Amino acid sequence: MVKIVESTIPAPRTETESDPGARAGRTAARPSRSQRAAAGKAARAHTPLEAHAQFAPSASRDPVGLLLGQAESRVPELVPVRHGRMLVSPFTYYRGAALPMAADLATTPTSGLRVQLCGDAHLSNFGAFGSPERKLVFDLNDFDETLPGSFEWDVKRLAASLVVAGRDNGFTRKQNRKSVLAAVSRYRTAMRTFAEQPLMTVWYTHLDIDETLQQFKSQLKPSGVKSTEAALAKARTRDSTQALSKLTAIVGGERRIISDPPLIVPVEEVFSDRKSHEIYDWLNSMSGKYRRTLQSDRRHLLEQFTLVQAARKVVGVGSVGTRAWILLMVAGDGIEPLFLQAKEAERSVLADFAGRSKYTNQGQRVVSGQHLMQASSDIFLGWQRTPGQDGVDRDYYIRQLRDWKFSMPIEQFPPSGMAIYAGLCGWTLARAHARSGDRVELAAYLGSSDKFDNAIADFAETYADQNERDHGELSDAVRSGRAEARAGL
After folding, report:
1. Beta carbons within 8 Å of 426's beta carbon, 6+ residues apart
2. Residues 380-391: pLDDT tens digits?
3. pLDDT in tens, 323-348
4. What is the per-residue pLDDT for 405?
5. What is the distance between the alpha carbons of residues 115 and 117, in angstroms, rounded to a whole number?
6. With contact defined as beta carbons under 8 Å apart, do 247 and 259 qualify?
7. Number of domains in the chain
8. Strands (E), 345-420
9. Domain span holding position 93
10. Which phi and psi (to 5°) does residue 457 adopt?
11. Where does a domain end: 362, 381, 400?
């Protein structure tokens, strides 16, 4: 699994926390450390820790209606694919139901302690990927819904996902609760640790995978260790070169993306009524705007590559139906590939409940949130707004398609493995929140007891029940014709 790597920066006396009066030219001093801690403890008066167990679904809930509302802005022929993927199991439904849960979370007791939220922090949205230093790191890896909001919304989304996934795996109620408690207690204790560290130490801290499998070997069966090592080795092969061999073929002497509709459709087939040069003028214009959002050195690197072809690609579960493009680019003599992914960024599902983003470009919202929460981000992460071939302006964020990206095989975890993984997710989420929120205030609110842990565990069990009912409602909607689903894709 992974090892926590912390910076060795000494703990200096920081003006932010220790001497607010020393900052010349400031019109207002920041609260002192003691004031921040007092504010965290005071927040318990209006939202006690035990209150986070509460969830009472309203009689007017309509999760299917919310999903159908999302479908209105998506590619029509892909919406049934989304529903088909969500119907596979309660867990795949949960992965696609970020909006219904956001609406539910808005009805629960709220601490008001704000951080940059992932917005969709279920356990499959954590994973491994390559850092710019070519280390395999573990972190959050999906920020489509990122937005500032109350910290416990991310914690509840993670906790409930552990119960939903655990039930899919056939775990007992006791085993699922153990996983949730592992995640939430690790979140709480990590936040208390971060509260005592200098801000720069928190900023540089990350989870390094390679060195740390040793830490958990004693808790895993030999077969589990072997399979984990093999999976991590395979992750290092998931790059543009591997994507080239899997996604393309030589046709008429040229490298072309293989058509596999509706999952992968070359851009010439998507816009068959347009001339090829018009399509690629549009794509080059799109990539030109995007390059300007990168650091100058990364922009220079990208300029060495030339666009060869693009295709629409179906990705994920909840994202199915949004416009996602893969861009095949080559450098120099044409044998050095780079695959980028341009993914449509819509309004966050949290926007109606936590407040709208300060960014007018939704792609910039995603990129800014990712930079704030991740310890290390893709060097080609950027954004743009571009008019589509239908004349509608859409926002996108762009990153590498594959850069050692690897998702843990949740469905293969035994109960002990799930608990270990849950703890890693809890620690990672705490570190992400500590970067953007007030870690001293958060730590003081959470406290040293397990009251918060048990309240979230109670909520997770209740919400997993609701998720199963919602999964059934979508199934009923498909049978009645209210919704359409296409299975097997």
Report:
1. 158, 182, 183, 184, 185, 186, 187, 190
2. 999 999 887 778
3. 999 999 999 777 789 999 999 999 99
4. 78
5. 6
6. no
7. 2
8. 382-387, 393-400
9. 32-235+406-480
10. -65, -40
11. 400
